[in-house]
Specification:
By secondary structure, the protein is of the alpha/beta class. The chain has 14 helices and 18 strands. The protein has a nine-stranded mixed sheet, sandwiched between helices. A five-stranded parallel sheet has the order 12-11-10-13-14, sandwiched between helices. About 1% of the residues have low confidence. The structure holds xanthosine-5'-monophosphate (XMP). The site of xanthosine-5'-monophosphate has 15 residues, from loops. The site of xanthosine-5'-monophosphate (XMP) has 15 residues, from loops.
Length: 519
């Protein structure tokens, strides 16, 4: 996390929850600066006047095990308000003499929390003395410490909210930071402003400044290459780097042959001509295709692509003297889905090509200025950096490109068919003013040929799958409800203009249980 020693801040102690960055994000949304510190580095926290409050995150650890973590006294000695969330709630209660037990009934998902007592942490939180929250736990605070009061309860958490108003210590068993908790932000706001009395000092201008300063500190006098894909993330990284290190930056744009129709032309035009960035264009489509020949397995595809990307970056970096860094637009959700974050319960879902797909040994050091941010935050940052509206509102496109939208073996013929179908779908979305209402849309080519009839003739061709989702940050998603009219229009156009496809289907799964991409 970026540091600014001059700002009032909230310190979030991370116990390994996959939601820790969501807490930071909610705090940023409130205009407040925060820093995340891992629980095993608590001892390093010194008494700092700028710390106005502490939030203890959730986590996969369990207090009911013998060797469990105790809340370090360093935190108490700071003499600032504390909010414990889930595991943080339990560790706080335990510290002051509460009892934690394994509950017979797990509480996972939505739960109703009912109010018992007024508290500054729950001001405006309840409606008719109850509200909907999101829980994820097995242990519960069974008995509260004598210095605390029970503020609220749920069916399976008899002490769902507790408080010690004198000391300004609060514990909540649920997750106020996730969007499924109806009034979660109110809890965060009450803590920040009502309880910690922290000032609003955080905004995009500051964030931009800190990111640029951090890049300068890291890169020093060395040169950097930036892996440019033409999407919003890598474009924002390129603009930040341009401001931070000027002509020490060279962008490299690799045509994998797995891009969308006309994409290479558009990217070169945007970055070389409009944004005046130093850009090297590499057409590597042949080599990508040959390495992917006969590969079926999604993870193998991702690893091959990630490895080849790096090999090419390293090869071209050698041609420029003193290149030490590779910058890329990795976002926080890429990290959390690609690997098990230390101590976190999250398991590896897929190797995002810019994270899990990277080879273990790399000659270049990584610069990833966006790796604690979410997509919508990057878009706002892009606006602050004067990125054009077209680029800002572009749907996300994955690094492995069309490779992960062609399940099974990839061939040139399939890529060409898919490019045409995708182009038609996206164009129709734009024409119908739907493009900006959708978070991400694309066409995929299923490895499935079926029988059809066209002009009285039998056809035996591929199936095109359309996917369009709404989402806040790509972590969860819902399918977009198109009208029958729209479906008819798109399906007709695809079938009539793309030879090779005789059937169009629409993906109506949410994430979870599905993911947005097919592989
Ligand atoms: P999934 O399929 O995991 O996708 O639900 C979530 C978001 O991430 C994008 N995505 C990627 N982006 N490299 C990227 O830069 C990748 O390897 C990658 N895989 C998925 C996906 O398009 C969606 O927006």
């Amino acid at each position: 996390m970026n540091k600014d020693k001059f700002l009032e801040k909230i310190v979030i102690i991370d116990y390994g929850s996959q939601f820790t960055q969501l807490i930071a994000r909610k705090i940023r949304e409130c205009g407040v600066y925060s820093e995340i510190i891992s629980f095993n580095k608590i001892k390093k926290i010194t008494n700092d006047q700028k710390i106005k409050g502490i939030i203890l995150s959730g986590g996969p650890l369990t207090i009911t095990k013998k060797k469990s973590e105790a809340l370090n006294s360093n935190i108490i000695n700071l003499n600032v308000p504390i909010l414990g969330i889930c595991y943080g709630h339990q560790i706080l209660a335990k510290k002051f003499g509460g009892k934690i037990k394994i509950s017979k009934e797990r509480e996972f998902g939505h739960a109703i929390v009912k109010s018992k007592l007024k508290s500054s942490i729950t001001k405006n939180f309840f409606k008719n003395k109850k509200t909907l929250v999101w829980m994820s736990h097995q242990d519960i605070v069974h008995t509260i410490p004598s210095s605390f009061k029970k503020v609220a309860y749920s069916d399976n958490s008899r002490n769902a909210i507790i408080s010690n108003e004198n000391k300004k210590y609060y514990g909540v068993q649920f997750h106020p930071e996730v969007s499924h908790t109806q009034n979660g932000k109110i809890i965060i706001k009450n803590f920040l402003f009502g309880i910690c009395k922290i000032k609003k000092t955080w905004n995009l201008k500051r964030q931009k400044k800190i990111l640029i300063t951090d890049i300068r500190k890291k890169v020093k006098n060395n040169k950097v290459i930036c892996a440019l894909s033409g999407g919003v993330d890598s474009s924002v990284v390129a603009l930040l780097l341009k401001r931070a290190v000027g002509n020490k930056l060279t962008c490299i744009f690799i045509n994998t042959g797995l891009l969308r129709k006309n994409e290479e032309r558009e990217v070169i035009n945007n970055f070389k001509k409009k944004l005046k960035l130093k850009l090297i264009y590499i057409d590597a489509s042949k080599i990508f295709l040959s390495r992917l020949k006969n590969v079926n397995n999604p993870e193998t595809k991702r690893k091959i692509i990630g490895k080849l990307f790096i090999q090419l970056f390293e090869k071209y970096a050698k041609k420029i003297k003193n290149v030490k860094f590779l910058a890329q637009g990795t976002l926080y959700p890429d990290l959390i889905e690609s690997k098990t974050v230390t101590g976190s319960p999250s398991s590896k879902i897929k190797s995002h090509h810019n994270v899990g797909g990277l080879p273990k040994k790399m000659k270049l050091d990584l610069v990833e200025p966006l790796n604690s941010l979410f997509k919508d935050e990057v878009r706002k940052l892009g606006k602050e950096l004067s990125l054009s509206k077209d680029l800002l509102l572009r749907h996300p496109f994955p690094g492995p490109g069309l490779a992960i939208r062609i399940p099974g073996k990839i061939t040139k013929e399939k890529i060409n068919i898919l490019k045409e179908a995708d182009y038609i779908f996206i164009n129709e979305l734009k024409k119908s003013n739907l493009y900006n209402k959708i978070w991400q849309a694309y066409a995929a080519l299923l490895p499935l040929k079926t029988v059809g009839v066209m002009g009285d003739k039998r056809t035996y061709e591929y199936t095109c799958l359309l996917r369009a989702v709404t989402s806040e940050d790509g972590m969860t998603a819902d399918f977009f409800p198109f009208s029958k009219n729209f479906f008819q229009k798109v399906s007709n156009k695809i079938i009539n203009s793309v030879s090779g496809i005789n059937r169009v289907v629409y993906d109506i799964t949410t994430k979870p249980p599905s993911t947005i991409e097919l592989e």
